[in-house]
Fold each of these.
Amino acid sequence: MIIAVDGPTASGKGTIAKALASHFGLPHLDTGQLYRAVGRQVQLNGGDPDDADAARAACAFPDALLDDAILRSEEVGGFASRVSVHPDVRRALYDRQRAFALQPGGAVLDGRDIGTVIAPEAEVKLFVTASVAERARRRWLEMQGRGIDVPLAEIERDIAARDARDMGRKDAPLRPAADALVLDTTHFNREAAIEAAIEAVRTRLAAR
Ligand code: DC
């Protein structure tokens, strides 16, 4: 069983994917982490994330980079979004994601194009979303919790810019697959969102 969880930044898709993996006993891959590693490697190389050659060269990042906490920073997230528009970067990361999806027993993957490009045959596809204002509020709370004080308006601007880039790129833009179930978590807390996702998977599996 492959479960594809796609959605925009700060929608709760990572939390939901992790919870589904643990509930259904499946391995989980956060594919955004791969793009973040490429973004970070460009930064370490002193390169420009908008330059296709610099981004391609950064795909040879060492695996240890995936465990670096700095990948979770807003700055690296922005770099990740910028390198992810280059088709060569998407191609370079494809095999790794595809192999993870196809492992015996199944897997949960979360990202932007899992249901549309990486695993279009996935048995269950969820598209997790929430309003920009709510996603900004969640990100703001999370950053406050880490002692980082950034104005809410700035976070909202960044999220809107990231959405526009992720949805507007030519290659594998962020969009729900035709057969995806859209889960809007704007009015859900964490527990309710997880419960709704588990229920959605159960319903999909029962209908097979
Ligand atoms: O999910 P995230 O915030 O960690 O992702 C960071 C960026 O990586 C995101 O803005 C776009 C890119 N990305 C992508 O293009 N395709 C994916 N499957 C996952 C992430």
Note: The CA atoms of residues 116 and 178 lie 8 Å apart.
Amino acid sequence: MCGIVAYLGDKDAYPILINGLKRLEYRGYDSAGVALLNGGDLTIFKCQGKVSDLEAHVNGRSTKGSVGMGHTRWATHGPPNDVNAHPHQSTSGDLALIHNGIIENYAPIKAELSQRGHTFRSETDTEVLVHLIDDIQRTEGVDLPEAVRLALESVVGAYAIVVMDRKSPDLLVAARKSSPLVIGIGENEHFLASDATPIVEHTKNVVYLEDGEMAVIDRHSGLKIRNVKNQDKTPFIHELEMHLEALEKGGYDHFMLKEIHEQPRSVRDSMRGRLNLAKGEVMLGGVKDYEQKLVNAKRILILGCGTSWHAGLVGEYLFEDLARIPVEVEYASEFRYRNPIVNEDDIVIAISQSGETADTLAAIELAKGRGATIIGICNVVGSSIARVTHAGSYTHAGPEIGVASTKAFTAQVTVLTLMALMIGQKKGTIGGSNFHRLLNELEAIPDKVQKVLQTEAQIRYIADIYKDATNALYLGRGYSFPVALEGALKLKEIRLHPCGRIPRRRDEAWSYRLDR
Ligand code: GLU
């Protein structure tokens, strides 16, 4: 998963795109590129390496244009090199396209287009799509949005794309399927990005494109959204709650350290307005309408991947202990490919930091299709999981940029604790005095975390001794068992460069991120 950013407005697009790509660097990538439209002139710059390499490559050349798009690539088809970097162009050179995701049926489409005279420069699956759109435009005589729509009808896979056409210099066409895209709406300007981080400094008004939807942004007629079946959709404008300062490093050496130190605040924010010591109650507004269903649940299924799965394991202990409900915790990527038994009176709790985890989304759809009630726990307001679940609670951890999760995990555990306490109290499975004791202990946690962080010198001393170890054994029983698993995952992510579950490319991006 890497990055897309695009702009159409009155300003110079290039600095906005470069800045936006830098905001998306945390997602990991191997090459970067931009395309700029200035009237009928289409200019493309792209190269392997970092966004700063792209800037050096562009240096001194004209970057005129108030329409443009930028991309950071995480190679899936063809090695990371200058030619495979996006944007890709049609044979005529009229169209340029950027893509995040995978076109699964690119090979037969490529073979057919080659027979029809198209020549391919790169080894990517993406390039096939731009040739296909070009081919449809010519043979069907349709405009760009319609050609994109028809092309997507023949494509199998996951994508977020943006397309530009030098014959239509005031137009951007975008579409998404299983790969997020957010549209920012400013004064006489529009932005597109893989997530809101490049947009927040320009506007707080955003529209989240849904799966199977296309956005047509025209300088004169503004934004139109339609689905791939050609039905018009009314854009629903969300207001971003993200603040720019939350995306900066705030004086810390790297994001992960900053996020570790943010935990007293993030845990407190996750409890804010939900824990009322005076009244002796827990209130989770987002699941209020489903409170009785939770209390009556015969079984809870918790779905997640990686860190969220570990938080789910803590949740299992909490729900069993405090609410006396049987819980099964499932790896979403396994669950979605089985034929799992899901009943209509099951409660499914889906956990994801970003709210965009593709496997968790697919697992939710499966469970929803079988009639279960789905409760989401995620960090990103308005994200896909927040939208597809019946109800849910945000974690309010703030943006987590470090891929090795810290504050998102503790915020997830906080929300799960509140949920278990709420159900336990309503169900009568926690005695009154025990309930009050637990509420008080929970309330005291942010201060305790603060105290732990004050021991940073000791932590650094210990870390220095063990930092070059090639193996480590994490032990834990009870609630500490999932925490030990999560600790071991962190160590793998940061030190050991695992080649197994976590792809190598991804942990290269991590080590880069930690070195910054
Ligand atoms: N599959 C495309 C490629 O390998 C896009 C990868 C991405 O998501 O950046 O170029």
Note: Residues 15 and 193 are 15 Å apart (CA to CA).
